[in-house]
Amino acid sequence: MGFVVTLVLTVIALIFGTVSYFKSIEAQKSQSLFLADLSRQQTEQGNATTGILLALEALPQNMNALITRPYVAEAEHSLYAALSHPREEYVLLHESWLNSAKFSSDGKKAVTASGDNTAQIWSVATGQRLAILQGHEDSVIHAEFSLDSQKVITASRDNTAKIWKVTGGTFSHFISCGFCKSCQI
Q1: Residue 92 lies in a domain
Q2: How far apart are CA 83 and CA 86, in angstroms?
C-alpha cells in the first residue's frame, strides 16, 4: 500500500513539474516575443544599438545547449533588421589606421588624423572630404580645430606640430615647428 501511495505521489509530482516546466517555457516565449517587438520599435525609431541588445536578450544564449530560452523567429528577424539598419551617417576613410577625430566648435566640420601621414577635413553635413593636410613625414597622431575653427593643429610622430590655416574652404600650410613644447593657435 505504501508503495502505491509513493508511486501515485511521484506521478502527481511529475505531472505538476511537467506542467510547470511548459508554463515556464510559454512565459519565456511570450517574453521573447515582447522583447522582439520592443527591438523592432527601437530600430524603427533609429535606436539600432538598443534594438540589437533587445533582440539578443530575446534569443537563446546557446542554441546547442538544453533550452534556456525558447527560440522565436521574430527575435532573429528583429536582430537582423537592427544589424542591417545603418547606425552611422558617413564613413570617413583614410589609407591607414585612424588616430583621432574631432569636431569643429561650430559642428560643421570634422578633422581626422591617421597613420597615413595625413589629417583630413570633412563636411559633417555631407561626409565629403574638404581637404587633405599633407606634409608630415610620419603618422599624424592628433589633429584639432582652434576655438574659432579657422585653424587646425596637427601633431605627428615625426616630432613636429603643424598649424594649418583654413581660408575660404582652402587649407594652406601656415606654420611648422619641430619638436616644440607648445604651439599656440
Answers
A1: no
A2: 8
Residue 90 belongs to a domain: no
Assess if residue 174 is contained within a domain: yes
Q: How many angstroms separate the CA atoms of 134 and 164, rounded?
A: 10
Q: Answer yes or no: is 183 within a domain.
A: no
- 2, 75, 107, 152 from 66: Cα distances, Å: 36, 19, 51, 58
Q: How many CA atoms lie within 13 A of 60 on its CB side?
A: 14
Predicted TM-score (pTM) of the model is: 0.51
Domain that holds residue 113: 98-178
Tell me, what's the pLDDT at 103? Answer: 92
pLDDT digits (tens, 9 = 90+) for 36-91: 999 999 888 888 888 888 999 989 887 666 567 888 899 999 988 888 876 666 67
